[in-house]
Amino acid sequence: MQISLVYAVALASAFGLLLIWKALRFLKTPARRRLCSLLRKRLIYTTFYRRRIGSDNVSILTFLKILIYFVANIAACALDVGNREELANRCGSLFIINLVPLLLGGRTSLLGDRLIRLHPSQSSLIHRWVGRVCITEGLIHGILHAMLDPRLTIVQSLLLSLATALMVFSFIYVRRYMFELFIKTHLLFALMFVGVLWFHIPFRNRRALVCLSLTSAVWLVQKILWLIRVGNQNSGRKAANEVTITAFMSKSGVPDAASVTVPLKKNWLIRPGQYIYLTLPGVSRHCAGFIQAHPYSIAWVDGSEIILIVQRFAGFSANLHHANTHTNFEFSRIVDGPYGSPHHLNSYDKVLFLASGIGIVAHLLAIRDLLVAHENQSARVRRITLVWFLETTNQEQWVKSILQRLMENDQRHIFTLAIYIPSEDVVQDHTSLGMYERCFRTDQALDLGWFISKENLAEAGSMAALVCGTAHFEEAVRHGVRRCEQDIHLLHCGFQPEDTKVSAMARSRFS
């Protein structure tokens, strides 16, 4: 590939972006706002592919980014290629380049979480697609060289086998149904792959060696810092009780969720929307709990304790509920966190929180902080509304006490709570949260587009809508925001609740 051609394309792209930016500055403020609102609704709020379990929503803009990344790699591999050997060498070079952001990803990436401040869904999406491209280029490199010289060495055979294993175990069906197996095998195969790669790259290929050396060094330093951080967080003189687990029972007498109170040995600065990785060695099958770390969104902070709400699914959460069926138990723990970056909501006049089921846990701390900021006159917000779509009435008990505290802290009456419950249960407990003036419970169907538009027209000023729910619920919110003529900023939480049979049955109650 000619260097002059690459330079010309890069220069033209940079110049074109500069012209677009300058042209936008000439537009009047109302016109610029309308244009930005239109672009957000068409590119960001429109879903190209709805997420499934173990995946993420892909918007039109995200799809375009992925497409550009694919096209760039294909062009770099195939443009002006002479023969198979040159194609194999190019794929190998691009594989090494793409390996840099790939190795710096993962759940314990301090670079992505602290510096770049990527949300978990964004980091996971980047890691998956870069990994797919990287492994594909590595396999093409290996297969083409095997076709040119069928006599493979042990190192080459190991690399091809490990690359194939990484690709097979990364399929969505493996991640969905064998998540614990995927996590452990993925890390093991990745470490083995990088280790064998050191024996494969020749010393004369200085560019590849420098790239691999820097990446490995940064990865190693990052992991050492992470281990020091985790050790420091879980040690100290400060006395801390063990983890307390309290089950919430469903109507059938089977626990469907649990409140997990985790005491902290160190003082943490916890912000809304952050999450932790929790390890409970005493709660696992096959005595393997000490190597399992599970992410949970922080629902509440009470002094030196954090509260998690864990919904029951298969695997670890099922073991958690099985160990604590009818009473309270205490367990030792290892806590890693907090991770995640909060949304900055203080600059909006109106904030609308929308949640379905367990998604409520992502909003509670944000509402508390906004109420405190409004009381201290450090935020513009003057209207806060929470819409909670209950899939079953039992879910109201999960955060009942926390919602009562939020209502009591609302001294200036800017917080409104609307709870949508199943129709067959509406008459059973119409005062479960107490007689609060700004708390409404209804069994009517939830028209998200109408509700969002009503909230936006209730008062003047800018508005943000923060959603956390199942894939279908979030898609309905996206559609409702696109239907509104006004400019509304739609934000998504890092926590993404999974679809269940109960949530699937409740889809007919919202639109």
How is this structure best summarized?
This protein is of the alpha/beta class and 511 residues long. It is 48% helix and 16% strand. The protein has helices at 3-26, 29-44, 60-78, 84-103, 110-115, 120-148, 154-169, 172-177, 179-200, 206-233, 316-323, 364-375, 400-409, 448-458, 471-483, 501-505; strands spanning 47-49, 58-59, 243-249, 255-263, 275-279, 294-297, 300-302, 305-311, 329-331, 334-339, 350-356, 383-389, 415-420, 439-442, 463-468, 489-492.
Can you tell me about this structure?
The protein has 511 residues and is an alpha/beta fold. The protein has three domains: 57-230; 243-339, Beta Barrel (Elongation Factor Tu (Ef-tu), domain 3), CATH 2.40.30; 350-509, Rossmann fold (3-Layer(aba) Sandwich). It is 48% helix and 16% strand. Helix 12 links the parallel strand 11 and strand 12. Helix 6 runs antiparallel to helix 7 and helix 12 packs parallel to helix 13 (400-409). It is globular and about 75 Å long. Mean pLDDT is 83; it is low at 427-431.
Q: Any key phrases for this structure?
A:
511 residues, alpha/beta, Elongation Factor Tu (Ef-tu), domain 3, Rossmann fold, six-stranded parallel beta sheet, five-stranded antiparallel beta sheet, 16 helices, 48% helix, cell membrane
